[in-house]
């Protein structure tokens, strides 16, 4: 799992939105988005697979290729129940709700409850649950634990990290560096729209401390 950290206003949400095709081109100075093709059936290839240039793809095409954005702010269907949200967000023909509810049993008592009546933290947890139970190859999650109780935040991050696989990648954005880097394999730090650091989680901690004279 890769973490994108940096202060509020650094451009993390804009970068994730651009990757998903949801941000207007005027908000970025440029860039290139490359995606690996969907894995073929049968034995894995023994050679490097060329990446596809997805820079000009529409948001719809990016989503169809397996790129999924979970915006910040508990992005769920307010008029649907928790159970209905999980079905809508899940992969067609599969029932992954049970596995997701095992990860977040806090949602079980609210399955028949409309999402609009949940607390902000519960809606955010539902948004993450819907994403994990869905069909994706690259998951972009903006502030996954916003509004969620600290005691549950570590479990949310652990679930996101556990979802990473050879054919699945997760990128999370969080303004709180230590929270995201606990389980991340790689970290980018963004400041004023620019990547100022890229490296291991232990290195970003030292880099941040040096910037503050610690």
TrEMBL record:
<dbReference type="InterPro" id="IPR017871">
    <property type="entry name" value="ABC_transporter-like_CS"/>
</dbReference>
<dbReference type="InterPro" id="IPR027417">
    <property type="entry name" value="P-loop_NTPase"/>
</dbReference>
<dbReference type="InterPro" id="IPR052156">
    <property type="entry name" value="BCAA_Transport_ATP-bd_LivF"/>
</dbReference>
<comment type="similarity">
    <text>Belongs to the ABC transporter superfamily.</text>
</comment>
<dbReference type="InterPro" id="IPR003439">
    <property type="entry name" value="ABC_transporter-like_ATP-bd"/>
</dbReference>
<dbReference type="GO" id="GO:0016887">
    <property type="term" value="F:ATP hydrolysis activity"/>
</dbReference>
<keyword id="KW-0029">Amino-acid transport</keyword>
<keyword id="KW-0813">Transport</keyword>
<protein>
    <submittedName>
        <fullName>ATP-binding cassette domain-containing protein</fullName>
    </submittedName>
</protein>
<dbReference type="Pfam" id="PF00005">
    <property type="entry name" value="ABC_tran"/>
</dbReference>
<keyword id="KW-0067">ATP-binding</keyword>
<dbReference type="GO" id="GO:0015658">
    <property type="term" value="F:branched-chain amino acid transmembrane transporter activity"/>
</dbReference>
<dbReference type="GO" id="GO:0005524">
    <property type="term" value="F:ATP binding"/>
</dbReference>
<feature type="domain" description="ABC transporter">
    <location>
        <begin position="5"/>
        <end position="214"/>
    </location>
</feature>
<dbReference type="GO" id="GO:0015807">
    <property type="term" value="P:L-amino acid transport"/>
</dbReference>
<keyword id="KW-0547">Nucleotide-binding</keyword>
């Amino acid at each position: 799992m890769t973490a994108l950290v940096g202060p509020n206003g650094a451009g993390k949400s804009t970068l994730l939105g651009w990757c998903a095709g949801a941000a207007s081109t005027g908000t970025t100075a440029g860039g290139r988005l490359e995606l690996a093709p969907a894995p073929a059936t049968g034995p894995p290839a023994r050679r490097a697979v060329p990446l596809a240039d997805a820079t000009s793809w529409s948001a719809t095409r990016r989503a169809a290729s397996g790129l999924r954005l979970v915006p910040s702010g508990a992005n769920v269907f307010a008029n649907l129940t928790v159970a209905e949200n999980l079905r809508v967000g899940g992969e067609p023909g599969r029932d992954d709700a049970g596995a997701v509810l095992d990860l977040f049993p806090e949602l079980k008592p609210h399955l028949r409850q409309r999402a609009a009546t949940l607390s902000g933290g519960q809606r955010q947890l539902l948004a993450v649950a819907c994403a994990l139970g869905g069909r994706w190859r690259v998951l972009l999650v903006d502030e996954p634990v916003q509004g969620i109780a600290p005691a549950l935040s570590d479990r949310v991050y652990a679930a996101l990290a556990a979802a990473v696989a050879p054919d699945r990648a997760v990128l999370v954005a969080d303004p709180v560096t230590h929270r995201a880097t606990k389980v991340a394999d790689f970290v980018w730090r963004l400041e004023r729209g620019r990547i100022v650091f890229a490296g291991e989680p232990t290195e970003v901690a030292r880099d941040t401390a040096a910037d503050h004279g610690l």
